[in-house]
């Protein structure tokens, strides 16, 4: 089936050569899970999608993850599988609760920002970025604005499900990529969570292209084209 789709290198990256974009990506099973319930560093997709993730990091000025992803996976968020420089790493950690021992706070591989609601000392080599509150959560509009003021306008939101969902709900993404692996998990970590549509006519839709990525299919939604 995937043979009918264009391979990812034929135009997928063109929009990402622009000076500003905000892209969210999640790798998920066919039944909508992004990881097993207790899994650490679960990799759902194939090698081609991992290469894609590293390419997105290389094209981005900043890579953003939620505190849940750092706590579960202890990711480095560096570029290792393709040529390119490491983006600035941004961790949304509203209460500054993450343990200081995580690799991205300690390894010095790239500048690292801890986005929190209150000023304070960031762990390890990281810098604290104090972000405004909005309706009880951290304001993503303010975060994006502060990153832009630092010249970080190409933003890759790498996960997890809560963080990508909040960027989407806040209207802070102009591209959403869901890479679906041909497997079923039956349960686990939820991917996107949106308010339920009452009727089919109210379903979330956006212009979409599909790309072949090894055994997986990447759904590439162009939210900016929605108008
Ligand atoms: N398959 C994939 O593509 C993929 C990618 C990345 C991660 N993962 C997996 O996903 C799981 C983690 O995902 P997750 O959804 O549980 O967590 P997450 O999105 O990584 O982090 C969620 C946390 O981030 C903070 N946060 C994010 N946006 C916020 C906002 N606007 N305001 C306030 N706080 C905000 C909150 O922290 P507080 O709770 O402190 O308020 C929230 O609980 C892990 O199992 C990881 O392995 C999968």
What report would you give on this structure?
The strands form 3 sheets. Strands 6-5-4-3-9-1-10-13-12 form a 9-stranded mixed β-sheet, with helices on both faces. The mean pLDDT is about 95. The protein has about 230 residues and is α/β, with parallel strands linked by helices. It contains 5 helices and 13 strands. Helices cover about 20% and strands about 30% of the residues. The protein has one domain: Dihydrofolate Reductase, subunit A. NADP nicotinamide-adenine-dinucleotide phosphate binds next to β1, β2, β3, α2 and β8.
Per DSSP E runs of 2 or more residues, the count of β-strands stands at 13
Bound small molecules, deduplicated: NADP nicotinamide-adenine-dinucleotide phosphate
* Overall pLDDT: 94
What form results from the Cα inertia axes? globular
CATH class: Alpha Beta
Explain briefly what this protein structure is.
Residues 27-190 form the Bacterial bifunctional deaminase-reductase C-terminal domain. One of its GO terms (molecular function) is 5-amino-6-(5-phosphoribosylamino)uracil reductase activity. With 227 residues, the protein is α/β, with parallel strands linked by helices.
Which helices and strands, and how do they pair?
Layout: E1 21-29, E2 33-35, H1 47-59, E3 62-66, H2 67-73, E4 88-92, H3 103-106, E5 112-116, E6 127-130, E7 133-134, E8 137-138, H4 140-149, E9 154-159, H5 161-169, E10 175-181, E11 189-190, E12 208-213, E13 216-222
Parallel strand pairs: 1-9, 1-10, 3-4, 3-9, 4-5, 5-6
Antiparallel strand pairs: 2-11, 7-8, 10-13, 12-13
The structure holds NADP nicotinamide-adenine-dinucleotide phosphate (NAP).
NADP nicotinamide-adenine-dinucleotide phosphate (NAP) is lined by residues 26-27, 34-35, 42, 44, 65-69, 72-73, 92, 94-95, 97, 137-138, 140, 158-163, 166, 189.
């Amino acid at each position: 089936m995937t043979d009918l789709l264009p391979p990812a290198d034929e135009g997928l990256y063109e929009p990402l050569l622009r000076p500003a974009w905000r892209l969210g990506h999640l790798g998920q099973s066919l039944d909508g899970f992004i990881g097993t319930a207790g899994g650490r560093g679960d990799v759902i997709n194939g090698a081609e999608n991992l290469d894609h993730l590293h390419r997105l990091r290389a094209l981005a000025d900043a890579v953003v993850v939620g505190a849940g992803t750092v706590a579960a996976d202890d990711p480095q968020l560096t570029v290792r599988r393709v040529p390119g420089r490491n983006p600035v790493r941004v961790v949304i950690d509203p209460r500054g609760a993450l343990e200081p021992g995580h690799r991205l706070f300690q390894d010095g591989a790239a500048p690292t920002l801890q986005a929190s609601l209150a000023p304070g000392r960031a762990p390890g080599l990281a810098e604290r970025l104090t972000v405004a509150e909005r309706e009880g959560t951290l304001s993503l509009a303010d975060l994006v604005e502060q990153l832009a003021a630092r010249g970080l306008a190409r933003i890759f939101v790498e996960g997890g499900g809560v963080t990508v969902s909040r960027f989407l709900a806040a209207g802070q993404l102009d591209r959403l990529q869901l890479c679906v692996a041909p497997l079923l998990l039956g349960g686990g970590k939820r991917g996107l969570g949106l308010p339920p549509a009452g009727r089919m006519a109210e379903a979330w839709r956006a212009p979409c292209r599909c790309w072949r990525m090894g055994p997986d299919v990447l759904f590439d939604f162009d939210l900016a084209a929605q108008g």
